[in-house]
């Protein structure tokens, strides 16, 4: 804690939040007010720049659907940057017609650890339901930092609720205010 205010760093797993927003009926996630969500979660604490992690859509010139997805993602990146976010990019890999993010969880884990070791925050707020991050959370707590898991009431991660110092399960009404 510096200057008497608790410092929070917010780490958003973009794919995870994207799917939850879609579950709640948000059509244009590229226009969502992500900063308002971060301010709500931080309360009166000081926000260290928010980070948004996502796999980047790559599109061939002749693939109209992928081109449209890429365009929408570029609008999202512009919106996030205008709101002061640091966008951290992984990539998407196709396997048997399904796309999987690669490199995103590792970037989140590294940034969480670097932030803890370099004393950049007092509390890490994690918007992700990825249980692969549990060992990182344990280490961060061992370094006397706090971790808050932000999940979703309709589909929470029990494992992350148990490991985090605190958790909030967001409802549709809280997300769409």
The biggest beta sheet reads: 7 strands, mixed
What is the architecture at the second tier of CATH?
A: 3-Layer(aba) Sandwich
Order of helices and strands: EHHEHEEHEHEHEH
Name the structural class: alpha/beta
CATH class annotation: Alpha Beta
The domain tally reads 1
Q: Give unreliable regions as ranges.
A: none
How much of the sequence is in beta strands? 25-35%
What is the CATH T-level topology? Rossmann fold
Total helical elements: 7
What's the Cα radius of gyration?
16 Å
Number of strands: 7
The percentage helix is 40-55%
Write structural notes for this entry.
The protein has 177 residues and is of the alpha/beta class. The protein has one domain: 5'-nuclease (Rossmann fold, 3-Layer(aba) Sandwich), CATH 3.40.50. The chain is built from 7 helices and 7 strands, in the order βααβαββαβαβαβα. The chain has a 7-stranded mixed sheet with strand order 4-3-2-1-5-6-7, with helices on both faces. Helix 3 (64-82) links the parallel strand 2 and strand 3 (86-95).
